[in-house]
Design brief:
Layout: E1 2-4, H1 19-27, E2 31-38, E3 43-47, H2 49-55, H3 67-70, H4 73-76, H5 79-89, E4 93-102, E5 109-121, E6 127-136, H6 138-158, H7 163-177, E7 183-189, E8 195-200, H8 206-212, E9 215-216, H9 222-230, E10 234-236, H10 249-255, E11 259-266, E12 272-280, H11 288-338, H12 344-355, E13 362-369, E14 372-379, H13 383-391, H14 402-409, E15 413-415, H15 425-428, E16 430-440, E17 443-453, H16 460-497, E18 508-515, E19 526-532, E20 538-545, H17 550-566, H18 573-586, E21 596-606, E22 609-617, E23 623-625, E24 631-633, E25 652-656, E26 661-665, H19 667-670, H20 681-690, H21 698-713, E27 722-729
Antiparallel strand pairs: 1-10, 2-3, 2-6, 4-5, 5-6, 7-8, 7-12, 8-9, 10-11, 11-12, 13-14, 13-17, 15-16, 16-17, 18-27, 19-20, 20-21, 21-22, 22-25, 23-24, 23-26, 26-27
Helix pairs in contact: 1-11, 6-7, 6-11, 7-11, 11-16, 12-16, 17-18, 20-21
Region (Disordered): 1-22
GO molecular function: phosphatase activity
Domain GAF: 145-315, 350-487
């Protein structure tokens, strides 16, 4: 006999589902039993149908026999003795929740009763028999025990006990408390709901559990597969004859299984969580009690499974979050390292160091330079393997080389084997590789190759992390190359605006110093020059152009080249400075409008020193340092150049005797700041010069001054360019 029905659905006319009905089925309806016994032999005269239903055997459902003959099992349980006492004494006997075994052997069943034995009296008050009145409480008692066990299971679920423990305990509870022998199984659905996996089946043989582990959820695939597919309970009362079990009949026979009732375990949203099955060793159809039991414990299983899945989802989310934080921390640390300085080679070496061993045991970085591949960086666990890896240079246009292919395609390549093409793969123990392109505006300029050894492999997560790191490293390397190119360009331009070298000047020791502000990316506005004139005379200048960069360079070039062009043609420093001022005032607006401060002079070496005539145009006052290291400022006045047609400059003449020096400097030195913001100032300039070594020399004066500034600023970057020019008379 087979019964298939949607028992998880409420019956028509029963709103809100069948849980209340299930509970009523479990607790049952208390049924009163009645029997009338006569004489000392307790002859059964009459009984109601509930009495005969309770004793459970149709052959015993008759009257006219002594009760001890009809139900011999009662004597050894003391119940016949109680009847004798009531008959003998005329006193009633009452029992509460008395356990009674009805029947014997395999046909016996345990039952519980509340009962009263009371005497039957005739008109004269004599006892003629015993009247039995009782209520069977077996079903209520069983349901209460099941409810208590279910509460314990719910407490386990609330404590987040392991799912296997909850399901195993649930199966054991049902098996121990069910009125008849039953074997419980719980199967769990895969995430896609297409297959069922072993969950718990403590009493089924291991070979059976292993055989059905992973069965498909499909129509006609046993009781459980069909219930999972239909999302309805499936009752197979006789496995031996039912078509659903055609593929599993021999397995069930080997396991001693004859009936299987399977109920789907469904989530709140109706999705499949698994199945709850009750097996029997003899063909059997379920009663209402059995169906209610299945539904209630399927709900308990659903709660346990959903709680387990929610906990797994929470743990998975935490693991993903932790992994994401670790990835972000790794990328941030690596990015910080890559941006540590603006040297392209060092950037790529830091890339290799970041990858090994974090992403792979070995790493090599190759770049293309002048049509050839150059191995720029390597990282390995020891120096020997690092040297071996560094000795291998890929071939740029080799079709069998992974680096060449990635350079050509711009697409990452990953494999669980050694790279194609020649290389020290055997000596390094390489078992796999990941080659990622380094791109500059979409064009590969190099590759990062990660190499596996031993059991290490590359998964999708590692590939994605490596590609992101390569992207950041490519940007850092591009910035470093651009920075290097810009610094080189700025230095080349700056060099063209300064002396290529200090000239040899008869009778004078000449020294210069120039230090640009910042990182040297912009052309500075400070400049100096020393060049020869006719008749043994020499010209010198030091100035400061307002601003920095290309516009400042244009103005610097205009001042220097104008001075060099007109100095041989004009009578003296004043005429040269006035010519420079006219050139600045007449320049196009596109060439800049900034002013210039300048000290320009001419000197003639003599036997007694240097005869100097100079012009100061708005610049810091020159300083004279005599042989005794006394420092004094040269008093000369004049306006800024490039502001007004007439700068109102006037020449100042002086003579430097042997071992005396003239020092010109820009305000980048006096305005240099200590960490607390205080400026270096003119007084400290004089003190530094006064404390310089003796005998005085042009170079030692500059060293004393710049060292003092460096100590004062604490070695911090300066905010303005610094330039110094020193002329020291030698008398030679």
């Amino acid at each position: 006999m087979t019964r298939v029905s949607g028992l998880d659905q409420p019956e028509p006319g029963r709103p809100g589902g069948g849980q209340d009905d299930d509970l009523r089925a479990l607790f049952g309806h208390s049924t009163a039993v009645f029997a009338s016994l006569a004489g000392p032999a307790h002859m059964l005269e009459s009984a109601n149908p509930a009495f005969f239903a309770a004793i459970g055997d149709t052959e015993r459902s008759r009257t006219g026999l002594p009760l001890a003959e009809l139900m011999p099992e009662l004597a050894e349980q003391g119940l016949i003795g109680l009847l004798d006492r009531v008959y003998r004494t005329g006193q009633s006997v009452t029992g509460r929740d008395r356990r009674v075994v009805l029947g014997s052997g395999a046909d016996g069943r345990e039952a519980f009763f509340d009962f009263t034995y009371e005497p039957r009296l005739d008109a004269g008050g004599n006892v003629t028999g015993v009247r039995v009145i009782g209520v069977e409480t077996t079903q209520v008692r069983q349901a209460q025990r099941l409810t208590a066990e279910q509460a314990a299971l719910l407490e386990q679920i609330a404590r987040q006990a392991p799912l296997a423990d909850v399901l195993h305990g649930m199966a054991r509870v049902i098996e121990e408390l069910a009125p008849e022998e039953v074997l419980v199984s719980v199967l769990l659905a895969d995430a896609d709901g297409r297959h069922l996996r072993h969950g718990a089946a403590p009493s089924l043989p291991d070979f059976y559990n292993q055989a059905i582990d992973g069965i498909a959820a499909g129509d006609g695939v046993g009781s459980c597969g069909t219930a999972a597919h239909r999302r309805q309970s499936v009752i197979v009362s006789d496995i031996a004859t039912h078509p659903y079990w055609a593929d599993f009949r021999e397995l069930a026979e080997k396991a001693g299984l004859a009936a299987c009732w399977s109920t789907p375990v469904l989530a709140c949203d109706g999705s499949l969580l698994g199945t709850f099955a009750m097996y029997h060793r003899t063909p059997r159809s379920p009663q209402d009690y059995d169906l209610a039991l299945a539904r209630i414990f399927a709900g308990t299983a659903a709660l346990a499974i959903e709680r387990h899945q929610a906990e797994q989802a929470r743990q998975a989310a935490e693991a993903r979050e932790k992994a994401a934080r670790a990835d972000l921390a790794f990328l941030l640390d690596a990015s910080t390292s890559l941006a540590h300085d603006l040297d392209a080679t060092q950037t790529l070496q830091r890339l290799a160091d970041a990858c090994a061993p974090a992403l792979a045991p070995l790493c090599a970085v190759d770049v293309v330079e002048s049509g050839r591949v150059r191995r720029t960086a390597t990282a390995a666990p020891d120096a020997g393997r690092a040297a071996l890896l560094a000795s291998h240079i890929p071939v740029y246009d080799a079709a069998d080389d992974a680096v060449a292919r990635v350079l050509a395609s711009g697409v990452s390549e990953v494999a669980r084997r050694t790279p194609t093409g020649p290389g020290p793969w055997h000596d390094l123990g390489v078992t796999g590789y990941l080659c990622v392109p380094l791109l500059d505006r979409g064009t590969p300029f190099g590759t990062m190759t990660l190499l596996s050894v031993g059991d290490h492999t590359f998964d999708g997560h590692t590939v994605a992390l490596a590609e992101e790191l390569a992207r950041r490293a490519s940007a850092a390397a591009r910035n470093a190359r651009q920075y290097t190119h810009r610094v080189t360009l700025a230095r080349d331009l700056q060099a063209g605006l300064l002396l290529p070298g200090v000239p040899e000047v008869p009778g004078a020791d000449v020294a210069t110093y120039y230090h640009p502000a910042g990182e040297g990316l912009d052309i500075g506005g400070d400049f100096y020059d020393v060049f020869p004139l006719r008749d043994g005379r020499w010209a010198f200048m030091l100035g400061d152009v307002c601003g920095r960069g290309a516009t400042a360079a244009t103005t610097t070039a205009l001042v220097r080249h104008t001075a060099r062009a007109v100095a041989p043609l004009l009578s003296g420093p004043q005429a040269v400075v006035e010519a420079v001022n006219r050139a600045l005032c007449d320049r196009p607006g596109s060439h800049g409008t900034g002013f210039v401060t300048l000290v320009y002079g001419q000197f003639t070496p003599t036997a007694t020193g240097l005869d100097i005539e100079l012009i100061r145009a708005g610049h810091t006052a020159p300083l004279v340092v005599d042989a005794a290291h006394t420092v004094r400022a040269v008093d000369a006045s004049g306006l800024l150049l490039g502001v007004a047609p007439d700068p109102h400059v006037s020449p100042r003449r002086l003579q430097l005797r042997p071992n005396e020096s003239l020092l010109l400097y820009t305000d980048g030195l006096t305005e240099a700041r200590a960490p607390d913001g205080e400026q270096f100032g003119d007084v400290r300039v004089a003190q530094a010069l006064a404390g310089s070594p003796r005998p005085p020399a042009a170079g030692s004066l500059i060293d004393s001054l710049t060292d003092a500034v460096r100590v004062f600023t604490g070695g911090h970057d300066i905010d303005d360019d610094q330039a110094v020019l020193v002329l020291t008379a030698t008398g030679e």
